Amino acid sequence: MTKICDNKSVGMLIWKDEKLLLIERKLFPFGFAPPAGHVDEHGSYEKAVEDETREEVGLKLRSLKLVIEGRKDNRCRREGGGWHYWKIYKVEIEGDLNPSKDEAKQAGWYSKDDIKKLTDKTRLYLEGKILEDKWRESPGLEPVWYQWFEELGII
To answer: Which domain CATH number covers 95?
Structure first.
């Protein structure tokens, strides 16, 4: 059964020693991104942050602060998922990184220089200079996060 998109998403910016936690998504949409997820059954944006942080990277939420929100056109694999209203939070965590084997190919801490390299690859992908099969093998930053990182001044 196809899940219907609620068009509401959260994203979690988790910094440690000036490095940002990113996962490489195992499922569409492919690319590197901070932990993120739909609000749907969680009931609220804040509860989704708590649950998705635990589910995707195995970390416990200590605190969260809303840093930006807005609507972005971005596809997900759910029916009706062509756009989302996002709330992006800066999140303080505790615990040891333990990424979901179902959702992440890998996870790690990325410097701004590392993130710049991923965004350079994303730019080439968006310009049609990297084909879909090559993108899946070795992606850059997930395109919606390319937009958010520009707005936030991370890139």
So the answer is: 3.90.79.10
